[in-house]
Amino acid sequence: MKVDWTGVYPAAVTHFHQDESLDLPATMSHLEKMIDAGIHGVIMLGTVGENCSLSYDEKLQVLRATVEHVNGRIPVLTGVAECSTKLACHFAADSQTAGVDGMMVLPAMVYKSDPRETITHFRSVAGASDLPIMCYNNPVSYGVDITPEMFADMADEEKFVAIKESSENPRRITDLRNACGDRYTLLCGVDDLVMESFILGAEGWVSGLVNAFPHENRLLWDLLQADDFAQAREVYQWYTPLLHLDTHVKLVQYIKLAVAECGYGSELTRAPRLPLEGAERDQILNIIRQGIEARPALSVS
Question: Given this structure, which CATH class describes domain 7-293?
């Protein structure tokens, strides 16, 4: 299936049983709820999907189950986050065999590569399959910054088609446009910067909180698309305390707790991530429950 790369793409959670084994039926059931709400595509095995907590075989199980469940209704992308370039290339090839439509590729994990090493990693992964690639820039979380100048250097590789920009610096949207023109489709990768990023030219949104609030998430995106910024600001103001949960080191636990509170699945994560407790749990639950109580009406004027 051809990937459009625009619109709302959840970084989907992976659900587990109590013994931490994969719960594929629950993962697919949750995904179906987001499809019903109108997502434009899905990214499995991102950070929120606990990519680095799954074995290689488990990752492929998730992808095969997703491709079968979606059955061509929306594009299916996979995160590619491995510690070595060789393994990332291997996974890219196996992902294509599993039937995904595209990839979201990260720099190699753990080691903080320099610009030459980073570009070599991305080019190597691009050469390992025929799949189109969204390059994921998140220097805040992963310590490697893919600058606009680096993306300009990489522009000759046709498989690099989109950028998930998560530097938490919305200036980057403009800098990327100035450096690369319209060469790449730009997507906001930081939930609580989506309105700012859209105004500056982002054409898509890779979201974490959409897992818990898929209808409201789509409402905000539709209002932005309609240039109804007055109503979009109202929805964004309601949504922002929840969207802030996407920018914390415990974003997976926070988002999964929101998913559970909204009735879409379990909050279970794999260790070393542990369930929230005490004052921290009370604080996050308060934010989530206030958001649920005050959620907006689902209509675009």
Answer: alpha beta
E-only strand ranges, 22-181 = 42-44, 76-80, 102-105, 133-137, 160-165
- Specify the DSSP class assigned to residue 267: -
Which residues fall within 8 angstroms of residue 2, CB to CB, at 6 or more apart? Answer: 75, 101
Torsion of CA 58, 107, 48, 38, to 10 degrees: -100
Residue with tokens 């370039």: 85
Q: Which of 270, 221, 276 is nearest to 243 (CA)?
A: 221
pTM: 0.96
Inter-residue contact 262 to 215 (CB < 8 Å): no
The end-to-end CA distance of the chain, in Å, is 32
Strands 204-207 and 185-188: parallel
Per-residue pLDDT of 193-215, as tens digits, reads: 999 999 999 999 999 999 999 99
Provide the sign of the torsion angle of the four alpha carbons 82, 85, 91, 96, taken in this order. positive
Name the burial class of residue 181, with classes exposed (0-12), middle (13-18) and buried (19+) by CB atoms within 10 angstroms of its CB.
exposed
> What does the pLDDT look like over 50-62, one tens digit per residue?
999 999 999 999 9
* Exposed / middle / buried, residue 97 (Cβ in 10 Å: 0-12, 13-18, 19+): exposed
